[in-house]
Amino acid sequence: MQTSKVANRYAKGLFEYALKVRKGDVVHADMKNLAVLAKESRELQVFLQSPLLNPRRKIKVARATFKSFSEISQRFIELLILHKREALLRLVAFKYQNMYQIDQGIVEAVVTTAVPLDKVLKELVIDKIDKVFGSDKKYVLINEVSSAIIGGFLLRVGDQQLDSTVSGQLTRLRKELLDDDYNVKRY
User: How far, in Å, CA of 76 to CA of 92, rounded?
Assistant: First the structure.
């Protein structure tokens, strides 16, 4: 079975159980932290994927590593380790977060700018997103910084994108100038 399908099944089981016991938000916070930790810690990745360590040892280390997590999340991590699925932890955490956000009506909006946005600009962007994309959802704004865009902004909300970057405008201008159908009117 594909890794993604297996991770999705585990995430779905955790999600449904967490909602049933009214701990969806607590488990969401744990999965968010787990995803960050698994991404940033090379040692954790190697440890979890090592076939040389027995599951009992991995569970002991996992308990110490994730001691601040809820009981549900800790038991779930132990379950993955016992079923030799610990390599899927990061993917399961991401899939859980997606399920939670869909359930809560939360949509990530990623705005890429040449310089970081201050608090006031972030609020203005959220207000504009509400007006353009609808205020029936909760938008979480993520500000990515890239000097490659030169200026302006690139906004991605779901599968829609609004490119108001200087680099995007230059690319469109270049394409238009190189277009074979471009007709020059002479006076």
Answer: 11
